[in-house]
Amino acid sequence: MSREMKDVGILRSDSRVIAAEQFNEPREEVISAEKFRKPEDLFAHVKNQIINTTHPKHLVYEDVNHTWGTRIVDSLVELHEVERRSARLGYNTVTKVLSATIMPTEVHGSHHEWIRRGISDWKDAGLLTPAENYNIKLKVGTSIRDFTGPYQNSRKDPDLLLRPDNQKMPSVIIESGWSETYPRLLSDMQLWLNGSVDVNVVLVLMWSKLSNSHVSGFIEAWVRDTNGPLKQQAAAIFPAGQNPQQTVTITRGDLFGAHLATGTNANDVLPLSLNSLRSLAQEDLALMGLIPA
């Protein structure tokens, strides 16, 4: 299930338009599930919010039991009117949170082209064989449900996933959001790394609107460690640093996991240029009437 779009000077989703000068950083709206008597009532509320919201929003429903949460998300992802609104849905059985990111902004998707170009660069530099390049699947907003352990019955639409060969679970995940949603993104990161043995890296991108239409941003790379998720790398996107060659790196083993080709080295580094991400993000911010810090 994939989603996204827009135009110069405006934010656009379906026929709804927001003037760029009116753009405010999307806020998190927290609602207790206790106000809903039946799962059908909560389902109707989430659906109505997704379909009728006219500006970017992050909805959080707390204290949702798993018999409700799983069923509601599974029902929502089947609806065409929900899909066309580019909503990102999730339900976490550990935190008991059902979430919906509605009308993702332009910069919310800057990483899509960044990763696509990164994979192309790896191939051109000989870091990937043609067979490896062919076997990487890149998807956006695909509903994932094969979590294990205490996260069983969780659901998540990642902002981007990389999946080796035909593996059910992805190996690399990107989650992106605005500053108020950062704690939720960390919960998402824990879901991915603790709820699956196949997810090896989660890249978290965070954007913040400052004064005078400026936007700052940073990226974190989280990996699985014996003591739990470990922040392996962190870097500013905006303001840009002084090193034009700065990269975020994953390894061949991170990307291919159990599908690592015979004779290849799991420790081979696959770099992703931060300058490339900055360039793409700057273009997307311009479409929103915003500029980098």
Question: Brief overview, please?
Answer:
This is Restriction endonuclease. With 293 residues, the protein is an alpha+beta fold. It has helices at residues 39-52, 66-76, 80-83, 110-124, 130-135, 182-194, 252-256, 274-287; strands at residues 10-13, 16-19, 28-32, 57-62, 88-92, 97-102, 136-139, 155-156, 160-164, 172-178, 201-209, 214-225, 228-238, 247-251, 269-273, 291-292.
- Residue windows where pLDDT falls under 50 for at least 5 positions: 1-21
Q: What is the CATH topology assignment of the largest domain?
A: tt1808, chain A
Sheet bearing the most strands, described? 7 strands, mixed
- Going by helix content, strand content and strand pairing, the class is alpha+beta
In CATH terms, what is the architecture of the largest domain?
Alpha-Beta Complex
Q: Determine the fraction of residues in helical runs and give it as a percent range.
A: 25-40%
DSSP summary, beta strand count:
16
What is the CATH C level class of the largest domain, in words?
Alpha Beta
**Sequence of secondary-structure elements:** EEEHEHHEEHHEEEEHEEEEHEHE
Total number of helical segments? 8
Q: What overall geometry do the principal axes of the alpha carbons give?
A: globular
Residues in β-strands, percent: 25-35%
- Structural domain tally: 2
Protein name: Restriction endonuclease
Organism: Elaphomyces granulatus
